[in-house]
Specification:
This protein is mainly alpha-helical and about 140 residues long. The protein has two domains: about 70 residues, Arc Repressor Mutant, subunit A (Orthogonal Bundle), CATH 1.10.10.10; about 45 residues. Helix content is about 70%, strand content about 5%. It has a two-stranded antiparallel sheet. A hairpin with a 7-residue loop joins strand 1 and strand 2. The two termini are about 25 Å apart.
């Protein structure tokens, strides 16, 4: 029997992305903006410069600067001068964004619950292990 694992990964990915894009559209956030916001939340306690974002995502200065400027306009982040290098700008999350992120985390938990509905705890653990192995096989 021929397996269609790749096809299922593609279909699942596309469906999840469509759902996420729907939610993002309600918040007026693009996929790229969402990735940068995720990174900033991940590094919340440390100062993050535009250069840090460029390196992490392997993007040009112009790309990152454009995305961050749009996030500033939308009130999700603000820029401040870096204490150690006055030429550099730190990107900081606004309180509005911190509240939005908590809502997004709740949605992510609901999505995971929906994806794993009907799975026992043991099946969830095994499934997670299998996905991790698949991911490592791609490295």
């Amino acid at each position: 029997m021929e397996t269609q694992v790749g096809l299922y990964f593609k279909k699942i990915s596309e469906k999840l992305e469509r759902q996420a894009n729907c939610r993002r559209a309600q918040r007026d956030i693009t996929f790229s903006q969402g990735k940068i916001l995720w990174y900033l939340h991940r590094c919340e306690d440390e100062p993050v410069t535009l250069r840090d974002i460029e390196r992490f995502f392997d993007c040009s200065h112009a790309t990152v600067s454009g995305i961050v400027n749009r996030l500033v306009e939308k009130g999700h982040v603000y820029l401040e001068t870096n204490e150690n290098d006055r030429r550099a700008k730190n990107v900081r999350l606004t309180e509005k964004e911190k509240i939005t992120f908590r809502q997004i985390q709740c949605e992510h938990r609901q999505t995971e619950e929906m994806l794993l509905k009907g799975f026992s705890n043991e099946e969830k653990e095994k499934f997670s292990e299998y996905l991790e192995r698949v991911y490592k096989n791609l490295e």
